[in-house]
């Protein structure tokens, strides 16, 4: 992939851009094998590759410059703004949106926030696209002082960009490098962006997490569904479930499934999907996953975990070791913390592992790992 910003030294987010893509995959696979070297792996499946450009469904743009000439992108280490509208990681469909957002900022009188002076209102623009063609746009503002101006100008933007199905304003008043605040203000009647992976309906709300590489994410969910379909299980937990992608793929009308996620917005999405699918034995709740699990006196046959980068941790590992569900399915965006957790699960064998290259041109990747109790079958 060629990137003029990288060549000019203005953006180095893709640290591995100069490394040939096959070598990127080899290096990631080698690291994963090193991390799991202490545990024999029953089956290594080949890495799932990604498109090398145009794969991201989300843009997080710092807004700099002036209200008449806004710059959308990031701020370099030297303090200079860098326009990322032509970043090759974004799909072509983003260009038209960025082109209209620049004059809209002036129309709405949204002065870009100046970090040094602690002045201005518009901090970030967050754009997400569904594979179904719709988009979600979030304005991250310092305060509500320009909110009415934003509302008044919005019909023009919606006329120019009818693909914007969900629009909101997030209020982030803190003078720190924090992407968003707690307060979200809806600017459109619909606040859930419809998505669909493998014929499973999913929804994205403004403050819910969603994978940034939809094609690889769809492969990840489909693989989990295939692995679970071959296990003799009738019940499962989906811990750290997000919008329910794993659980909704794995669930059948007969399976008893409970999904747990601390983010209430994500749970609202998961519940909407389950209702649309007619899954009567599936439930989702907004709770802390570790606290939920460790307060239960029994576990289902399968526990699926998809934790944040810190992993599931010693407490949950100890609980799972004691309760001993037949199978654990571990999805991780941080193979180092996953390897630490697996080392704690001494009574489990690693049956199957597969790498999913969710983040090309970087050292990051996703992993799916199936564990079974020693002496069992998987």
UniProtKB/TrEMBL annotation:
S-adenosyl-L-methionine binds at residues 211, 240, 261, 306. The keyword 4Fe-4S applies. It catalyses: uridine(747) in 23S rRNA + S-adenosyl-L-methionine = 5-methyluridine(747) in 23S rRNA + S-adenosyl-L-homocysteine + H(+). It is an enzyme of class 2 (transferase). Its EC number is 2.1.1.189. It comes from the Bacteria. [4Fe-4S] cluster binds at residues 3, 11, 14, 87. InterPro entries: 23SrRNA_MeTrfase_RlmC, MeTrfase_TrmA_AS, MeTrfase_TrmA_CS, SAM-dependent_MTases_sf, U5_MeTrfase_fam. The active site is at 333 (nucleophile), 333. Keywords: 4Fe-4S, Iron, Iron-sulfur, Metal-binding, Methyltransferase, rRNA processing, S-adenosyl-L-methionine, Transferase. Pfam families: tRNA_U5-meth_tr. SUPFAM superfamilies: S-adenosyl-L-methionine-dependent methyltransferases. CDD domains: AdoMet_MTases (cd02440). Catalyzes the formation of 5-methyl-uridine at position 747 (m5U747) in 23S rRNA. Belongs to the class I-like SAM-binding methyltransferase superfamily. RNA M5U methyltransferase family. RlmC subfamily. This is 23S rRNA (uracil(747)-C(5))-methyltransferase RlmC. It comes from Pantoea endophytica.
């Amino acid at each position: 992939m060629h990137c003029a910003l990288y060549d000019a030294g203005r953006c180095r987010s893709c640290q591995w851009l100069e490394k040939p893509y096959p070598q990127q995959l080899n290096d990631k696979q080698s690291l994963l094998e090193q991390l799991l070297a202490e545990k024999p792996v029953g089956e290594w499946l080949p890495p799932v590759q990604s498109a090398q450009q145009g794969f991201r469904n989300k843009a997080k743009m710092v807004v700099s410059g002036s209200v008449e000439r806004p710059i959308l992108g990031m701020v370099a280490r030297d303090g200079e703004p860098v326009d990322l509208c032509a970043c090759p990681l974004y799909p072509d469909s983003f260009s038209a949106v960025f082109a209209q957002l620049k004059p809209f900022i002036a129309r709405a009188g949204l002065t870009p926030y100046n970090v040094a002076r602690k002045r201005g209102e518009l901090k970030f623009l967050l754009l997400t696209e569904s594979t179904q063609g719709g988009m979600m746009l979030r304005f991250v503002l310092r305060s509500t002082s320009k909110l009415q101006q934003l509302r008044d100008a919005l019909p023009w933007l919606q006329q120019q960009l009818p693909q914007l199905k969900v629009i909101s304003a997030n209020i982030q008043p803190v003078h720190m490098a924090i992407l968003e605040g707690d307060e979200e203000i809806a600017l459109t009647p619909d606040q859930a962006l419809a998505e669909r992976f493998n014929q499973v309906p999913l929804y994205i709300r403004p403050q819910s997490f969603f994978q940034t590489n939809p094609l690889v994410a769809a492969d990840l969910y489909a693989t989990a569904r295939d692995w679970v379909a071959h296990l003799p299980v009738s019940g499962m937990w989906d811990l750290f479930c997000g919008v329910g992608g794993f659980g909704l793929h794995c669930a059948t009308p007969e399976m008893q499934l409970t999904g747990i996620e601390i983010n209430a917005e994500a749970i609202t999405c998961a519940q909407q999907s389950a209702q649309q699918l007619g899954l009567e034995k599936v439930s989702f709740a907004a709770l802390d996953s570790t606290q939920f699990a460790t307060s239960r006196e029994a576990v289902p046959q399968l526990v699926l975990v998809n934790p944040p980068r810190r992993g599931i941790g010693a407490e949950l590992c100890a609980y799972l070791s004691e309760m001993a569900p037949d199978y654990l399915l571990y999805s991780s965006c941080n193979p180092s913390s996953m390897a630490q957790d697996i080392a704690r699960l001494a009574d489990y064998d690693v049956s199957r592992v597969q790498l999913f290259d969710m983040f090309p041109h970087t050292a990051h990747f996703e992993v799916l790992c199936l564990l079974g109790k020693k002496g069992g079958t998987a």
